[in-house]
Design goal:
Elements lengths: L3 H7 L6 H16 L5 H29 L19 H24 L5 H14 L13 H22 L4 H24 L1 H7 L4 H5 L1 H22 L13 H12 L8 H24 L2
Helix pairs in contact: 2-3, 2-6, 2-7, 2-12, 3-4, 3-5, 3-6, 4-5, 5-6, 6-7, 7-10, 7-12, 10-11, 11-12
Subcellular location: Cell membrane; Membrane
Function: Conversion of 1,4-dihydroxy-2-naphthoate (DHNA) to demethylmenaquinone (DMK).
Keywords: Cell membrane, Membrane, Menaquinone biosynthesis, Transferase, Transmembrane, Transmembrane helix
């Protein structure tokens, strides 16, 4: 049976910035329009973290039973490495998704009930990424889904549940966070191109090929800093977001250098850290309104 540390690694903690950064950014956007509600932000954080853990375990289960993870260079997969039974990993996924669904339901009911439909779409998206008979993650749509769910929906949803409105600042933040969140998946799929090709998992990286995937990653990590200049129209203090640029440069270095396999694993960490630091800095400015 898998140890506690292996279960934690199976939850892929390196992806947690993808859950935390959108809530930070959405709360900053809500504060900017004078509508931050901190207990709602806490509920949104629970939803986001539970969903990303749930989708990670769901991917572990679905890829494991398909044999996609039999040969991989990335972090441990519980089913693929035969550290845990498929049923146990599926149960962990279902529990995590149920926590997210229950918390999201409560948040929707105290905000706007029609948000329940958005939440249902998020749960479906989490499962169908690699689950079901025709997973969209196997058709090169994973990055698009991450941009939508962990960028647009997560940031604007967090802003809306607190302020009951969205604005252009929230939209810019959503695009920036979505770009970095997608970049994490691009780096992951760049690393896995050789094994995904063998297993028949047609990710966007497989479709684009190695060279174009590396260029896409660099565009996605640069875009938030272009948008940082746009946010300066709201307040010049948003330029503090450029302080995260050295982290983005560090994240992109192995990609630009042509490294592959396990040498790309730190890219996921550094891209996530870039996203988290950028969101925290810009959010602090929007909350303080200097």
């Amino acid at each position: 049976m898998a140890s506690l540390s292996q279960w934690i690694e199976g939850a892929r903690p390196r992806t947690l910035p993808n859950a935390v950064a959108p809530v930070l950014a959405g709360t900053g956007a809500a504060a900017w329009v004078g509508g931050a509600v901190w207990w709602k932000a806490a509920l949104a954080l629970v939803v986001s973290v539970a969903l990303i853990i749930g989708v990670n375990y769901a991917n572990d289960y679905s890829d494991g039973i398909r044999g996609t993870d039999d040969d991989r260079s990335g972090p441990v997969r519980l089913v693929g490495a035969k550290l845990a039974s498929p049923q146990a990993v599926l149960a962990a996924a279902v529990i995590s998704l149920c926590v997210g669904a229950g918390t999201g339901l409560a948040l929707a009911l105290v905000s706007q009930p029609w948000l329940i439909a958005i939440g249902a779409a998020c749960i479906a998206g989490a499962w169908l990424y690699t689950g079901g008979t025709n997973p969209y993650g196997y058709r090169g749509l994973g990055e698009v889904a991450v941009f939508v769910f962990f960028g647009l929906v997560a940031v604007l949803g967090t802003q809306y549940t607190q302020a009951l409105r969205i604005d252009w600042v929230g939209l810019v933040l959503a695009v920036a966070v979505g770009s970095l969140s997608s970049a994490v998946l691009v780096a992951n799929n760049l690393r896995d191109i050789p094994t995904d090709q063998v297993s028949g998992k047609i990710t966007l990286a497989v479709r684009l090929g190695d060279a174009r995937t590396r260029r896409l990653f660099q565009v996605l990590t640069a875009l938030p800093f272009v948008l940082t200049a746009v946010l300066a129209l709201a307040t010049p203090w948003c330029l503090v977001g450029f302080a995260a640029a050295p982290l983005a440069v560090r994240a992109a270095k192995p990609v630009r250098s042509g490294l592959g396999g396990r040498e790309l694993i730190p890219v996921l960490r550094d891209t996530g850290l870039t996203m988290l630091v950028w969101a925290a800095l810009v959010t602090a400015v929007l909350v303080i309104k200097p």
